[in-house]
Specification:
It is a single chain. It is built from four helices and two strands. Helix 1 crosses helix 3 (67-94) and helix 3 (67-94) packs antiparallel against helix 4. The chain is mainly α. The relative contact order is 0.07. Strand 1 (98-99) and strand 2 (102-103) form a beta hairpin. Strands 1-2 form a two-stranded antiparallel ribbon. It has helices at residues 21-52, 54-64, 67-94, 106-129, and strands spanning 98-99, 102-103.
């Protein structure tokens, strides 16, 4: 009778990722994708309600004003901000830009992303509020 010996596998605690800040941020960033999907779906539902007319839009707004939906959207906003900030922090590593034979610094690339984000936000706010 032969038995096959299995290699020893050290047990890994379920919350291994909570022990280091970098791992925790990585896991929260991965979780943020769920809230990105929620936000996209919520926007589609809003556009659909607008397209269906005034009654559907008012129903959507009344549902959107309920405390669970407001709380979910506040949490989603926090995760979307985390997602955007962590995404932008990766940009200087992914984008190596050269100008006149010199590499553009990581700070400049990061600053350019934030300036572009601010500009797009300002344009969207201007369009939405006028």
């Amino acid at each position: 009778m032969t038995t096959s010996a299995r290699p020893y596998r050290q047990p890994v605690p379920r919350l291994w990722w909570a022990k280091r800040r970098s791992y925790l941020l990585f896991m929260l960033r991965e979780l943020s994708c769920v809230f990105v999907a929620w936000s996209a779906g919520y926007l589609v539902l809003l556009v659909r309600a607008v397209g269906m007319g005034g009654d559907a839009y008012r129903d959507f707004l009344s549902t959107a004003a309920t405390p669970p939906v407001v709380a979910l959207n506040v949490v989603a906003l926090a995760f979307l901000l985390l997602h955007a900030v962590t995404w932008f922090s990766l940009a200087p590593r992914a984008m190596v830009i050269h100008a006149r034979g010199q590499r553009i610094s990581a700070r400049t690339v990061l600053a350019a992303h934030y300036v572009a984000w601010l500009a797009v936000t300002a344009v969207i706010a201007w369009v939405a509020l006028t």
